[in-house]
Amino acid sequence: MTADMGTSDDPWVRIGVVGRPHGVKGALKIHLDNPASQTLHSGLSVQCIKAGKTHTLTVTKIGSGIITFEGFSDRTVAEGMVNAELQVRRSDFVDDDDDSAFLIDLLGAPIVDMAGAGLGILLSFIDSGPQLLAEVKTPSGRVVLVPFVPPIVNSLGPPIVLAPPGGLFNDEDALVAGSAHDVDQVAAEDESVANDDDSEGDDGVSIKQR
């Protein structure tokens, strides 16, 4: 996931990518990172970023994977937004579950194990395809990739409480950022690891992308 944090308390957060034009009246297909997202609606102000340029647009219609923007009246105009990154304000997220958390809100959070020992700080997330990975910077300065799925994630805290597979945070065989293949092997050893980006563990932990 990506977010333009800047100095704002309400950052712009990527929710997907603009696709090809749909029809001849300026509509476009969109590919959301979380297909179940309900964030987009008519009248919402969004940002489309393409080739280093930021375009602030207003949604006029959204539905069935098709979006239209104010001022987009024909296919030629729409073609200018193809492959643009689509962003919304964090405050525009639909938050209808008090027991869940959005990934953007967890960045920078302290992480501990089940005994309360400090494991590090959550730096960022990586979508590896099969599962979501968290980059954790340990007290020694190493960066470890952790499958961010129940039952490894015991609580979203703060602090975030993990029950990591054995050896993941050991100095001798810690998994360093970039070793996604090794992380997948560790996760595979735990038969109960779930692979949903928006999933719930036995203790009610719910993780949502956006």
Notes on the structure:
- The longest helix has 9 residues, at 180-188.
- The protein is elongated and about 60 Å long.
- The chain is mainly beta.
- Strand 11 and strand 12 (143-147) form a beta hairpin.
- The model is unreliable at 1-7 and 172-204 (pLDDT under 50).
- It folds into two domains: 3-92, Elongation Factor Tu (Ef-tu), domain 3 (Beta Barrel); 100-208, Roll (SH3 type barrels), CATH 2.30.30.
- The protein has helices at 75-79, 180-188, and strands at 3-4, 12-22, 27-32, 45-50, 53-63, 66-69, 85-89, 100-102, 110-113, 118-127, 132-137, 143-147, 153-155, 160-162, 206-208.
- 7% of the residues lie in helices and 39% in strands.
- It starts with a strand and ends with a strand.
- A six-stranded antiparallel β-barrel has the order 2-3-6-5-4-7. It has a six-stranded mixed sheet with strand order 12-11-10-9-14-13.
User: Briefly, what CATH class of the largest domain?
Assistant: Mainly Beta
Radius of gyration: 19 Å
CATH architecture of the largest domain: Roll
Distance between the termini: 9 Å
Structural class: mainly beta
Strand adjacency order, main sheet: 2-3-6-5-4-7
CATH T-level fold name of the largest domain: SH3 type barrels
- What is the overall number of helices? 2
Order of helices and strands: EEEEEEHEEEEEEEEHE
Counting structural domains, the number is 2
Largest β-sheet summary: 6 strands, antiparallel, barrel
Sheet-strand content, in percent, reads 35-45%
Report the average pLDDT across residues.
78
Helix content: under 10%
* Record field, number of beta strands: 15
Shape category:
elongated
Low-confidence runs (pLDDT<50, min 5 residues)?
1-7, 172-204
